Structure formats: structure tokens, C-alpha cells
Backbone:
């Protein structure tokens, strides 16, 4: 079973059971540059992926 991560117009499929942080790294993205969201709710990146999870990765925006 797998989980899905989406970032902008890209979609990544990863194995469930790993942390969201590990999945972000596996997708060649920076964990510090994105925020994981499930069903519109912000979650921490130490959460373990469950089968059929769909994680939306939202880019971190900062300004001065």
C-alpha cells in the first residue's frame, strides 16, 4: 500500500510506514521548505504515513 504527496503540480507516491519528513526527503524536497497538510489541517512531519494518505505539501513563504 502507498501514500501520496502532492507539491504544486507534482505528485509523488511513497510507501506507507515512513515519516512524512522521510517521504519529503525521498521526493528530493527540503523538509524546511514545505508544510504537510492533510484534509486542510496542518500536521507535523514526524507523523507516520498510513496507507492511502494524501499529503498536500504547501510551500513555506517568508518575508521581511
Residues:
Amino acid at each position: 500500500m502507498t501514500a501520496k504527496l502532492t507539491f504544486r503540480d507534482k505528485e509523488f507516491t511513497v510507501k506507507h510506514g515512513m515519516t512524512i519528513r522521510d517521504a519529503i526527503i525521498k521526493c528530493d524536497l527540503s523538509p524546511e521548505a514545505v508544510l504537510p497538510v492533510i484534509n486542510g489541517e496542518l500536521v507535523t512531519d514526524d507523523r507516520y504515513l498510513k496507507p492511502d494518505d494524501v499529503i498536500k505539501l504547501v510551500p513555506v513563504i517568508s518575508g521581511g
